[in-house]
User: Fold this.
Amino acid sequence: MKQIITFLTIGIFFSVSIKAQKTESFLINKIISGCPLEIEPIAKQLGLSNLTYSNLETGIDSIKVVFGGLTQGKSNGYWISSYINNKFKTFSTVELLKNESSQFQTNVTDISYDNSSKKISVQLMHNTSTNEIQYLWLNGSMQKSKIATIINIEKTIEKGKTFPSVTVESLKGGDVSIKDFIGKYVVINWWATTCAPCIQEMPGLNSLVEKYKSNPEVAFLAIAFDKKEKLKYFLNSKNFNYMQTLGNNETAKIFGESFPKNIIVNPKGITSFYSEGGNENMHMNIDTELKRLLKKE
Assistant:
């Protein structure tokens, strides 16, 4: 009988040991008040306050990731930024959802870089009672690790190729399809209300709308990856004169979750211009391309 109990004990210990080896324990960092210097002008432009942050260990020397909390208006949320080769690259807000089983705020977030050709993915869990961030990196098969995995992204939008079929929701109601613009040059802006470079380029983009308003061959379409109420609230205080529409998760699979992106689709549905990232001079690049395309005709 003692022998049987011994064997059972060893068997249970062995089984538990195997499971423990397969399950990675989460990395845990304390979240502190403040933010990196590069984030301060973005926070000011977006009206963010009460910023907190924590440096996430990627295990890759060339990639640094910072995660934190924020307040915007009456809402609390989270943000994440990346540095590639010690250069600040991206800032975006992220949504963590309440996990009923653990009472943690949790979600999986992708961080794209190198013109959205590469990404790293991280599972985040915010323990609000201890103000700690728990996290693990995910590979292409969604397996968890303490070291980030660089994943190559197959791009769905490329210059010289047919633009994908996209249908989005108009802010005024109804659907808008890219097919509605066949026969025109459609200038597309993929953006988000919490994207600082998106806001920086808006005055210039508005000047393009004004310049080409009498040209029936050119149309301007903005697709925001936001909720309708949030977009309406934003547009109450800031002008963005493109046709305003809303993207969803399916649209994000096509455009990716990095902002902004500026695209020109020609009358035959071919992508003629593609640019990632924005600044106050982006409209000049778009205008140069539009003049070149219109002159060819």
